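Field notebook, page 214. I keep forgetting to write these up properly, so this time I am using the form the group agreed on. The chain and the ligand, BIS(adenosine)-5'-pentaphosphate, are recorded exactly as supplied. Prediction of the bound pose follows.
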Amino acid sequence: MRLVIFGPPGAGKGTQAGLLEQRRGITQVSTGDILRAAMDQETELGRKAKSYIEAGELVPDALVRQLAEQAIADEGYDDFVLDGYPRTEQQAAWLTEFLTAHDTPLNAVVSLDVPDDELVRRLSRRRVHADTGETYHLDHDPPPEDVDDDLIVQRSDDKPETIRNRLNVYRDETAPLASYYEDRGLLVSVDGTGGIEEVFERIVEVLESRAHSA
Ligand code: AP5
């Protein structure tokens, strides 16, 4: 299956894409994770991306295009869920062109709907494992007790002012892609509120009903 998981910062894209990978064998391709790993390793890409990410701005299209296309090719053009790509009209057009050229169009774009106040609550209470990148939430999904506290850190773009900017950037540049995919009959909206398992069940249900009606 070829999917995009779509939604604002904090909607649960990474959490749900991770579950699709663990439980359904659909590989999670997260441009955010790839960029953060490049920053940690201080590669040229990481150095270029750092200032954009820390300001809550988008990294230039051309840089992420290459990452996303390489990751899709590595998966043999199938069984992937794109988390955080595409994010601009240019990226969406490139993705359509790239997948069409390989005769592997998207099956669906799952859009997670979550109100803004809940997004802010989720992002400000998110923590990550410094080594593994595993994501936690201090209230809903706390780190296991045997994990060293020093390894549980806050993402550099989860500061309140950066969160606000990321939400604005999402509204201006990324949210319009919902109509791009709706026009192509690919958009499926899922209520992203409630527990992590509840949201996962909703996603599986809409994907199954879409597969049956195809
Ligand atoms: P990226 O890493 O993609 O960040 P994002 O889109 O802002 O999304 P997040 O990772 O913040 O949130 P999420 O929706 O994955 O939520 P999560 O599952 O973690 O990108 C970071 C930056 O990289 C961008 O700002 C940009 O600079 C750059 N970038 C990346 N891709 C790019 C591209 N294509 N073009 C240009 N630039 C790009 O959940 C959030 C929290 O909520 C967690 O703590 C989680 O445990 C908790 N949670 C999840 N689900 C629930 C639930 N149902 N109930 C309660 N808590 C929940």
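OBSERVATIONS:
- Residues 125 and 138 are 6 Å apart (CA to CA).
- The chain has a mean pLDDT of 96.
FOLLOW-UP: compare against the apo run.
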